[in-house]
Amino acid sequence: MTLNKVKFHNDAMLMTLRREVYMVLVVGEPVVVYKGGLPGLTGTAELAVNATDLVHKYTTYLTRKQDELLDNFFKKSSSNSSSRPSYTKLYSYHHIVNGFAVELTAEEADLLAKDPGVVQVQKSYRVQKATVHTPYYLQLPQGIWAQEGGYLGAGENIVIGLVDTGIDPTHPSFSSMGQKPYGPLTSYHGKCEVAPEFPLGSCNGKIIGAQHFAAAASKDGVFNATLYFASPLDGDGHGSHTASTAAGNHGVPVIVNGVFYGNASGMAPRARIAVYKALYRLIGGFIPDVIAACDQAVADGVDILSLSLGPNSPPGGSISTFLNILDVALLNAVKASVLVVQAAGNGGPYDQTVTSFSPWIITVGAGVDDRSYPNTLTLGNTTVLPGTLLAPPTKGPFLYNLISANDAMQGQGNPLYTPSDCQLASLFNKLLVQGKLMICTYSFNFIFGGASMQQVVSTLEALGAAGLVMVVESDVAGSKFDPIPFTMPGIVIIDAMNSEVLLDYYSKLTTRDANGIAVQFGAQAKIGGGQIANYSGQAQQVALFSSRGPDIKDFNFNQADILKPNVLAPGYLIWGAWTPIGIDNPNYIGQRWAMISGTSMATPHVAGLAALLKEKYPLWSPAALASAMVTTADVQDSRGVPLQAQEVSGGSTPLLQNATPFDMGGGALNVNAALNPGIILDAGIQDYINFLCATSGITPRQVSASTGRLCPKTLGRSTDLNIPSITISNLQGTRVIPRTVKNISPKPETYTITWISPADVAVTVKPTSFTAGIGQLQLQQITFTLRATRASTATSFGLVTFTGHLGHSIRIPISILNKSLT
């Protein structure tokens, strides 16, 4: 055998023998599903969030059966029948799935998947973070807060479970000092871990529980307990940020570098925060840890589960997206009456990039609200150039001389950085720079390399510069810049054309010798202040980065009859709590607040607002809560202009197009309308089972094995699911779609139905008007008939509006792809 062949053979053997973490679902119902039937084991389906002896007895039984399966498997698969079983079990899952996480070789995983007691085996994969003005932008003080007794009672006794990077318990957003005392909650049974960096008392009533999950991360070999903290402490900042957005205290001053940026508040400032740390700074997280965190959160009794995370890439495999282990677990969380809110992902503006798939999850896209931090640069020729940077103005009314980084160089450069990045003070002549505004370049080194704005500050301060003027390498680079707090006068000209205007002005007024060396600097400018927010009053736009639909039903990217995302919430430049020890974002090292963007930031807005709805309607199902938010979301601004979606333009300013349901779902969150929707659409666990059974590519055996429930004898269609949207991925001929609405108002109301038909689709509705009664008459079925009038390869969109005579109004978006007429 040649050396190359030997190496290949040895590598293949190592791959076969190397053990990695797998999640295994096994036969038998988890706690939230089990209705009884086993000798001596009473049903636990209605006791999922209660710490009872019955639940403990059943979870002990499940653990024993899991261990017996593993013991028998390893005895059978061992080459030496007398050897003892050898395996490492990381987690037992009990409450929302019945299974475990275990280390296996690829060969063992394949063999175990064939065991009759095993439902599904899925290899671990990594997940990532889907990374003060908004309470007022969403009109909470005069709306839902006022109706719930003000911010002092908003979200009272509701527990939001956050699966994230942990929490900084010392942050004022989570302090119980000066707050109305938090009493005990008998419905919540989570514990509070104690560690040197997370001392006793960290759980103070506001923070009601805190745990960490890192077994899979540890087995992967990337977990360092000292660096990442084997405790609930947030070493990143992301978890504290999302927690403060959902349920941070009201009226906490946001101060960065000594500058006051306003008072911050969570959406539900009296809600409790339950921390389940499963993501870690720098490394992200692993799905077995995430599922363990979700399993524990449901067992503990959270009301809302907020997941600002998603897979790094689709997990893959032949199983449907709806039956991957995380989504099965979240289905059973919903069975336990827990509303699950998940980030759509940051893969936009490209199609089919959502990483939250199932109809029982409310998937959140990110919107850009009306706040900006504009700044200006006034040149010596009176030209005013717009830009941005949260920086103070230059001192006094006078102008300062400009000098470019290239003209300020001394000696040889550094191979790691181009001089115009302004990363090393040693590259420049201090005597030339001192007292001048230095021109640097925002290049792709700041986006993909190691350059940072913090280092620019260090460089300019060491040189005694009067301030920073930063031009952009290109419009694409400019579109990636987000304003950050800056300690010295500065501005970033994010438009490439304006950058050229500045550089042309500088060039004309700079005198050079015969060798091209600058000897006299005549260009001058002054910087305006960029620390004052501007509020335009405009409606939200779908952020460029926000992931888009259509949803997929499998990992071959076949489209699903489900709309994703479901709703849009503010997710661009959001102020939130930060931890000073966070190192993932170099611009906020040492700070207690950060202004960052992502669908991660949008998700806790929805989680917090859902807590307010849950407080008012404690008996509503997760589907009912989601319906109230989705159907009352805004599709137009106050002027009647359709919401816009940002698209790639090739310039620093995104192209704007009318947003479709694949961009924004039902629209931009309007929580005050959601508080009183009039009518809702509801669905329960059996409805979701029927949906799974009717989805092509999913077999009844897969459904029963994954959920413990049988498919009905008569299968309907996947589009029959009673959700507040109509999505058909392949309309052939005519499709009849039922929806049932439920009146939740104390009075009967007469509704009129109007609609805008999608292109190439004829829509009829029966009835076109109805009276929503009360009591036994509160349900009303509506039948939509959709007929393709022309085959098409492009999805078309429509909208159904229900308008009540008492003022209520809800909307249901339509998304149709006509592949053929028959």
UniProtKB/TrEMBL annotation:
Domain (Inhibitor I9): residue spans on this chain: 64-128
Pfam families: fn3_6, Inhibitor_I9, Peptidase_S8
Primary subcellular site in the record, as a coarse category: secreted
Entry's localization field: Secreted
Active site: 164 (charge relay system), 238 (charge relay system), 600 (charge relay system)
Keywords for this protein: Glycoprotein, Hydrolase, Protease, Serine protease
Subtilisin-like protease fibronectin type-III domain boundaries: 720-816
Domain called Peptidase S8/S53: residue spans: 155-635
CDD domains in the cross-refs: PA_subtilisin_like, Peptidases_S8_3
Signal sequence annotation: none
PANTHER family membership: PROPROTEIN CONVERTASE SUBTILISIN/KEXIN (PTHR10795)
Family note: Belongs to the peptidase S8 family.
Name used for this protein in its record: Subtilisin-like protease
Protein source organism: Sphagnum troendelagicum
Organismal lineage: Eukaryota, Viridiplantae, Streptophyta, Embryophyta, Bryophyta
